[in-house]
Every structure is written in C-alpha cells, then in structure tokens.
Design brief:
The structure is a homotetramer of 157-residue chains.
Chain A lengths: L1 H6 L1 E3 L1 H15 L1 H5 L3 E6 L2 E7 L13 H16 L6 E10 L8 E12 L2 E9 L5 E11 L8 E3 L3
Parallel strand pairs in A: 1-8
Antiparallel strand pairs in A: 2-3, 3-5, 4-7, 5-6, 6-7
Chain lengths: 157, 157, 157, 157
C-alpha cells in the first residue's frame, strides 16, 4: 500500500492547475464549440475568453445571456477543479450589466471566495475588450468522489 | 391622434404572445443554433425544448451548465416578452439538480411569478424526457422602452 | 446491536415532522423573539407567520428585508429538518415584490423542490393577510452529521 | 423656479453620504432594535456591525441566517441610498459560509459593483471579530422617485 502511494505523481499547485485544465479542456466539447480560449489558469482561479459570433446573438441583437453565463461557468469550472478533486456546479447566479455585441471579446475571470468541506463559492466577472463590466457571476460548487487525472496528487508541504 | 390610435393593430393575448414569439425567434440566432424548439407559447409563459448534442458536453461528459441555463433563459425571454413590451433579463439564478446526458431532450417551461412596473420575476423548470427535474431557474426581467412589433398592441378589454 | 436498533423510537412522517419542529422551536430564540408562529408543519414543508411590529420597520417605513428573509428562512429550516437529519442553510435568495407594512401579518410557506444526497432546494412564498405576494424565496440546504432528536427515526416502510 | 433651485442645499459626496445615513438611521427601527452600529459610511459603501445576542440564535445554536442577512441588507441599504435618491432592494442572495456564535461581533461591508439607470448591484461581505468570512451577500437595488432629505442635492462638478 505504501508502494502504491509512492507511485502517485506529485505536482506543485501551479502545475497541478495547468494539468487539470488540460484534462478538462480535452473533453469540454461545449467550451470548444463556443470558441472559448483559456487565457490564464492557476490554483483557485481561471480566465477564459470568447468572441461573440453572429450565432450567439438573441432576438434583441445582443449576446444570448446563456452564452455569457456559459463563459463564466466554464471559468468557474476550471477554477474549482484545479486540484484534481472532481467538482461540479450546484448553482449559479448571474447579473447582466451591459449587453455584449457581435464581435466583442468577452473575458471571464473566476476566483475562489470560499471552500470548506465539499462546497465552495466562486465569483467571476465578465468584461468586454474595452474593460466594461458585462456581467457578475457567482457559482456554488460541490465536490464529488473522483479525480480528473488518475494517480496524480498535490505536492505535500 | 385618435386616428393614429385607430391605426394600431389590436391582438388578443394568446395571439399577441404567438406573434411576439415569432418576431423574437426570427432573430434569435443563438436559440436556433442550439437547436431549440418552441413547444408552447402564451401570455406569461413559454416552453422550449433542446436535444443535448455532443458539442454541448462539458469536461465531465454532461451537458454544459451554461447551455442548460441558455435553454431556461430563452424560455424566460419568450415568457416575459409576450405582450410586445421590450423586456430584457437583468439577472438569473439556476440550480443544477441532475446532469443532462448526450441525446437527452430537455424541456424548459417558464412562467411569470410577478410583474410590477418595469420589473418581473419568472420561474422555469428544466426536465428531461423522463420527466426528471434537471434544473430550477429564476429570472428577473426589466422592461425597457421599445416594442418587438411596431404598431401592435393588446386588445383593450 | 439489533437490540440497540430495537430501542430506537420509530415515527411516521407526519409525526416525525411535528416532533422535529418542536425540538427546533424550543431553542429557536430568534424566531420566537420575532414573534413567529408555526401555522402548519409536515414532511418537506412548513408554514410560519409573523406580525410586522414597529421595531421591524426600516428607514423607508416598511418591513426590513432581513426580517422578511428571516421568516422565509425559518419556514425553510423547519421544512428541511423534518426527518431528523440535521440540515443547515448553505444559501438563500429572496425577491422583494411588495412592501410589508406595520401590522401586516406575513405568512411564509416553504416546500421542498429537490433533495439528493446532502443537498436540497426549497422554495418559499411570503404573503400578507390579503394574500398579496410579498416575497419569493429559494434556499439551498446542506445536511450535516447529527440528529435533532437522538434515537428517533422514521418508520420503515 | 430658478430661485427654488438656488435654495437647494448642495453637499459634496462624503457629506451627502453621511447626511443620508443619518436620515435613514433615525427611522430604521429594525437595525436599531438588532443593535446594529454604523462603523463607516461613504459614497457607494457602508460598513455596519452587530453583536450576536442570545435572542438571535436559531434552533442549531448559531445566529439565525435571517439576521446575518439583515445586517448585510442594512449595509447594502446605506450604500445604495448614499446620494439622496430613494432606493430599495429588489432582491438579495446570501451564501452562509461559517456559523455566527453568541457574542460574536459581525461586520458587514457593502460596496457598489454597478449602477446604471434605476438598477444597481452591491456586494457585501460579513466577517466576525477574528476576520473569518461568515457570509457573502449580493443585492440588487431599484431606485424609485423620491428623496431621503428634501431639497438637498450633490455638489455639481
């Protein structure tokens, strides 16, 4: 059993966050199909961007709120899964502050606010290329059994 | 002025809701691109469905939360724009209760809970084809100046 | 061990809900100090009322939003602790739809919408004596180890 | 009419925030009855404290969530009414992160995140005397016609 333990690959936090993001991204067909890009990743935070395409506009000619939510939700997902403990969203709240227009580049930056036991709270801002605040997001996470990358764990310190 | 008034087309509520939905749908590239379908529409409510495609899955192999939100948000948008008064989402909250799997058919049904002055509250449920509750959504609406269909108004009674 | 098991008092659902409410109420100094009254209680739901006193008014001469929240939160607490599994609120959202005035009698009715594993979602409405909707509340619950009444369990069936 | 205009008292932002807080506080029976204290006040923010009394405990021997909400909601109210434009809460969301115990001194600090037209978004943190985060609050505001202090306006600049 101690041998099994020794076999586990140990990663420092920044490397762990990067590896978990890679593992999640590979299978994240939705974020890929929406043209999202990972801009920055690290322990407890993530930043993703998305260009608003024509097929993302709603009946009011602005970006569909669900797709702004999706960008923030993806940033949240990368931020809360950074340590290889499988974590899902249990709920999310978004405030729509300004419309997104076709061609705008939105960037969502998510940051951990609290984590205790199996639950966590993460905040994200969504800004456009001019730095205007487009939306505020708050997500609640729930950690379930399982790993993103089997046999990899955080460096003990 | 009374002549101008006389020129406005008057529609009963059910017809008005149908016409507003048609007008919104025509330009709602996002809902169309996500394969949504309007299942039912009427005064203060709307029901939309969406089949979960492979390109809607997230890194945990379940439907991306943003796309479940998008379906509920679209139903909310159709429900709160039924009377030809231009109305946008100011915020939304979603509870994720069960995962959506590839091939599942989700149906979001939104209903007005409150409307006073320029603000409203709408609830939506999202269920899968087995009738299981997948998500609960609550949206807050804000009515802005403008109409969806110029010159059309509700029948007075 | 089977003897220990036999020693546990078994209660049917309605009786269990009543007994848990009694146990919680005894120590619920806050709900008592705010003059709340349990109007109805049962499995997965609870209804509580509160008369708006002068010392509950805010600087706008209407009932302080925190006290409307408190009434809904108490109804939620009784609804989610009905089965003798210790359960706390992890978050709550309230929509303020109409003001409460001094002397108004508010009634909050909370109902379970979902419960799976350790988490649950509960909705509550808050109405005044005229039946007007004053607020909509949604609470998220989290079940922790522990019982309200030691050694009491639900009748198996 | 220009004379009337000339008669209006003009106040710089910090002074305006202080005067509006005084005016609101005078009639805020609820915040007073809960023993709240204004710790800091200024344009777009407010900080209030409250000591958890025995009559604030719930059936789990921790501070009733409604009273933690009330503290954050009061801080939010002072933050969003700073400029003498009558503003009410349209909704609020709170995350309960750690329990409050009898004797704890909670401090809620609210800050404007967004304000456009008649609506605003405010965030508040609630911490205890050790600096531990007890709750996160987000409130949505709605500005209605009216002033807190008749005939007083912000210095033009």
């Amino acid at each position: 059993m101690s041998e099994e333990k020794a076999a586990a690959e140990q990663l420092p936090p920044a490397e762990m966050a990067r590896r978990c993001a890679e593992a999640m991204w590979r299978d994240d067909h939705a974020s890929q199909a929406l043209g999202m890009r990972i801009e920055d990743i690290g322990p407890r935070y993530a930043s993703l961007s998305m260009t608003i395409r024509r097929d993302m506009l709603n009946g009011h000619a602005s970006c569909h709120g669900g797709l702004i939510f999706a960008l923030a939700d993806s940033a949240f997902a990368f931020a809360c899964n950074w340590s290889n403990r499988l974590t899902v969203a249990s709920s999310g709240t978004i405030e729509f502050l300004a419309p997104g227009r076709e061609g705008d580049v939105l960037t969502a930056t998510a940051q951990e606010r609290s984590r205790a036991g199996r639950t966590g709270v993460y905040d994200a801002t969504v800004c456009n290329q001019a730095g205007d605040l487009v939306a505020l997001f708050r997500g609640r996470s729930y950690t379930v059994p399982g790993e993103l990358i089997p046999g990899v764990e955080l460096t003990e310190n």
